[in-house]
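Methods — Computational structure assignment.
A single polypeptide chain was analysed. Its primary sequence is given first, followed by the predicted tertiary structure written as structure tokens.
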Amino acid sequence: MGEATWLIVVAVLGVIALLFLVMRTKLQAFLALILISFIVGLAVGMTPNEIIETFETGMGETVAFIAIVIGLGAMFGEILRVSGGAERLALTMINKFGEKRSSWALGIAGLIISIPIFLDVALVILMPILYTLANKTKKSLLYFGVPLLAGLLVAHGMIPPTPGPIAASSIIGADLGWVILFGVLVGVPAMILAGPMFGSFISKKIHVPVPEAMNEQAAALADLEEKADAKENQKELPSFISVLSIILLPLILMLLNTLAPFILEEGSVLRGILVFIGHPYAALTITTLLTFYIFGTKRGYSKDEIQQITTKSLEPAGIIILITGAGGIFGEMLVASGVGDVLASAMEQVQLPLVVFAFLTAALLRIAVGSVTVAMVTSSSIVAPVISTMSISDPMMAVLVITIASGAVIAPHVSDSGFWMVNRYFGMSVGDTLKSWTVLATIISLVGFGLTLILSLFLM
């Protein structure tokens, strides 16, 4: 590898590091990725027309897929939120598991709820349940909060159709069915270790009472819980089965799409049907329309109200789509400029496994940027050109997405908006937030990396 090429790579990575160290919002992430892409193109001597063409290719190929998927996911998640689906799921699971095993119920509930609903929104919805449980049992808020947070973070980072995994899968070219399968296989053990098990330990070390300002919310929810089996409340919240079914529906359909070629003969009618309805576009369209009817129209919402709800849901989705598109531009620029080949060659020379490279890239970006989604998008854009130089199976591509997700959830600190949300809602000091939320996320990250490393030994 020539000295000039090394200088280009070092310069590009230096610019990336500098921009991300000063970046603090998703808008800044979008602008940074666009600027970095221009710098890469100019650094390797591309003409203005070549740079523009690369921009159009990178944005078009990426957004063409993720815009529809993220948009549909955001709409069905918002309808579910407004209808009270998250509360119904959590309350029913706590009731079924019992108070003694409520931490396990909350971990599983968080894992399911955060699939259609953004992590920060899900946390705000479910915090009153935690306050009620903490007041009833006099236990540390962390005993209930850590399992819930672990479930929310695992689903947010590893299981489509949440934005991060969708974006990473699109940029890398991984099949969503495989990503869902490995996301669950890796995410459940990570949630158990970082949730109920770590929560039981840390709650004995740090006693966090319900913040005084939040006691009114806790009292209101306690009243709701007392009426949980009353007929009037059954009308207020949707049924547990309907909520669980609508969340699992797109996951099952996409898994069937992936597994159909392995279990059915080519050319069979059933295989064709499963492949069609299991495509992310079809699976999420079916789910979204059913959500509109079951949790919207049947519960008394008018067409105008449903439109207002879904329109509002697209506001946060819009910036995520732009960031992912910018990540696609960045990845395409690395391919067109030849920097991807240089990175692949450098990895080969130092004998760095691809899984380790993917994890370290995502982890460094997460620590610098703070955002899980931005870290996943950017690291996927860096890893994708390297993957294009290798022959990798579909299952291994999905494992790489989960590896990137594992790196992208590591060590949240003061640059992470989620850090301050947990700090505020739990009423903890910065030090206690680091000891609980940061350690929890790091456990998920390291367990996820360990499991994907083991899987890669069988799939590479």
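Note: Residues 227-235 have pLDDT under 50 and may be disordered.
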